[in-house]
């Protein structure tokens, strides 16, 4: 009884009732910490289905690529979908997205601000904070003091910038300072897609190398850009602009590669019902499993489903440093490190 009376007395105290009546969440919890970015916004019309966003995501099931059903008028669009319950707002998906404009935007770091610039220019200069080492050489070189430090990151003030390009010349890190073209956006998308398809086809053509690659092994290729250069110039005739657009995209690009050795397939058909786009079917007339590469999302579900390890899954990265040679690195994927899919 005495314990009960003590609790009644304690709850009746004015200090307790005031605290209960005026209860509120701490300001630090309510406000978004500065280290957090926004939830990614998806501009699905720009997506080229390369899958770089899903490869870079460190949070299981936070992002996946989907493909809409085809209609009589057009093919279904392919684009990423964000799961807010799993997303940690790190912004990696937006950083590695190679399209311009971005398919994924995650805060001001990935936006070209729309303020009016009185100096007509085909491009705006922006700092890629993912690559920037904060040496401040661009800031010192800028003749109009247009480069500032905002929230401990270098930022180009578009209202001051005169698009002279001197910041790009002094930047020691390839790709950290970018001259982003703001014209012919559809042409830029077509040019990037041409490059991505070429690189994927090139790697898919190395079947013997891929199938003999050990788990910890590495493949390296120097892929000539000359094979698609004439086609690229049909899209954007200016050689300097075309090369810069391709370089900016390639230096951040990751591509997932699915290799399928049909001769070793046991035809268990476990992969057929698991494919989210229906790109895997069983051809009874030929008694074999068939994969439609155009519908394939490279999501790796078939790779995870196959009990005989017939399906192989690889991650390819690229860089252009010396003109028109694309340095390519391919490794066998470890799903525990690279991607987890629903």
Task: Give a short summary of the structure.
This protein has 342 residues and is an alpha+beta fold.
Can you characterise this structure?
The chain has 342 residues and is α+β, with helices and mostly antiparallel strands. The protein has 14 helices and 14 strands. It has helices spanning 2-11, 14-21, 27-30, 52-56, 92-96, 137-141, 166-170, 185-204, 207-212, 226-235, 239-250, 271-274, 301-305, 335-338; strands spanning 41-42, 63-67, 78-82, 104-105, 123-127, 147-150, 153-156, 177-181, 219-224, 254-260, 280-283, 288-291, 311-320, 325-332. The strands form six sheets. Strands 9-14-13-10 form a four-stranded antiparallel β-sheet. Helix 8 packs antiparallel against helix 10 (226-235) and helix 8 crosses helix 11 (239-250). The longest helix is centred in the middle third of the chain and has 20 residues, at 185-204. The radius of gyration is 25 Å and the shape is globular. The termini are far apart. The model is unreliable at 109-120 and 336-342 (pLDDT under 50).
Report the order of strands and helices: HHHEHEEHEEHEEHEHHEHHEHEEHEEH
- Tally the beta strands: 14
The portion of residues forming beta strands comes to: 15-25%
Helix content class: 25-40%
- The neighbouring-strand order within the major sheet is 9-14-13-10
């Amino acid at each position: 009884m005495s314990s009960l009376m003590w609790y009644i007395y304690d709850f009746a105290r004015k200090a307790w009732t005031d605290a209960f009546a005026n209860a509120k969440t701490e300001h630090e919890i309510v406000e978004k910490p500065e280290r957090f970015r926004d939830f990614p916004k998806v501009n699905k019309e720009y997506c080229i289905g390369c899958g770089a966003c899903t490869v870079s995501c460190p949070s299981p099931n936070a992002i996946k690529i989907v493909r809409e059903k085809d209609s009589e008028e057009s093919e279904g669009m392919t684009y990423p979908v964000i799961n807010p319950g799993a997303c940690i707002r790190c912004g990696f998906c937006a950083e590695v997205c190679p399209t311009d404009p971005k398919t994924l935007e995650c805060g001001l770091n990935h936006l070209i601000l729309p303020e009016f610039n009185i100096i007509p220019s085909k491009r705006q200069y922006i700092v890629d904070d993912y690559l920037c080492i904060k040496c401040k050489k661009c800031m010192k070189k800028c003749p109009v003091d247009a480069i500032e430090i905002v929230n401990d990151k270098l930022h180009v003030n578009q209202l001051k910038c005169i698009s002279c390009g001197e910041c790009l010349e002094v930047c020691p890190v390839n790709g950290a300072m970018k001259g982003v073209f703001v014209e012919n956006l559809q042409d830029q998308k077509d040019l990037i897609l041409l490059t991505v398809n070429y690189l994927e086809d090139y790697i898919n053509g190395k079947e013997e190398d891929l199938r003999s690659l050990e788990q910890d092994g590495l493949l390296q290729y120097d892929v000539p850009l000359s094979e698609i250069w004439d086609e690229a110039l049909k899209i954007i005739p200016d050689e300097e602009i075309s090369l810069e657009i391709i370089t900016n995209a390639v230096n951040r690009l990751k591509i997932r590669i699915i290799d399928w050795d049909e001769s070793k397939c046991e035809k268990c058909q476990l992969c057929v019902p698991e494919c989210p786009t229906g790109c895997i079917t069983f051809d009874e007339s030929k008694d074999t499993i068939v994969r439609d590469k155009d519908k394939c999302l490279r999501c790796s579900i078939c790779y995870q489903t196959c009990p005989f390890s017939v399906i192989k899954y690889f991650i390819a990265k690229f860089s252009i440093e010396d003109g028109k040679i694309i340095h390519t690195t391919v490794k066998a994927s470890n799903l525990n490190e690279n991607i987890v899919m629903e």
